[in-house]
Predict the structure.
Amino acid sequence: MDILKNEYEYFLVLCETPNISRASEILGMQQGSLSKALKKLEDSFQGKLFVRQGRGLRQTELGLLVQKQILKLKDDWQLGLEKDRESLRQVAGRIKIGAHQITAIDILSKVVPRLNEKYSELQLDMVFKTSNFITRDVIEHELDFGFVANPIKHPNLVIKKVRKDFIGLWTKNLKNHDKVIYYNPDMIEVSKVLKKYKDYKHVPVSDYEVLAQFAVQSHGITILPNPVAERYKKLKNFGEKLLEVDICLIYHVDRPRTHTFKKVLEELRP
């Protein structure tokens, strides 16, 4: 259940994606309808919430204040509901979990279906982002839990190590491969690796699953995290590990320890 008017929800999306065109795509609505909804909201607050900046929007001081109050309203309402449900000892309500797609396949795919089928009143929302964005959202109370790689130490975070992964080189043929290297340009420290293979043709692919499929079909080498590569039996790892990665579960130190939160945590933590 959502207590906010549609205009407020549209406004929050614009705060995260300050571009009318992109935000309307996310919301699945026409740009004109989104602009009208924003105008209606600005009229109700008697002031501008955004100003145009280049191709996008920038929040005004009023816009930042309104965003803060709306998020507080949502948090207070959800917290109040969860506290009331505590007396019923129900596992119910909404829990938001953030993870990279790789982690979602390897970890959440084993946990989320079980939780959904076990607790009919529990709603689990999945958010797929990079580790940096997930960490930020947990710190700002936008997410209840996050699975991240090599999390930064922060006074507001509880960090529980789940496992250690690594990024390595993978190929079908260990003895003879073409001088082509496939990689994800968003991978951390990938530029350092590519310098060692400057005489190879560099081919960027911005999706790990597609990248793995390329590796299976190609005669070159591919930079991949081991959880992805190991799902494909044809691929073999060679050379040293390029980077070791700690996969950790994180949550806010001040997150209320409701009955629902504790039950979900029991399922998620190692």
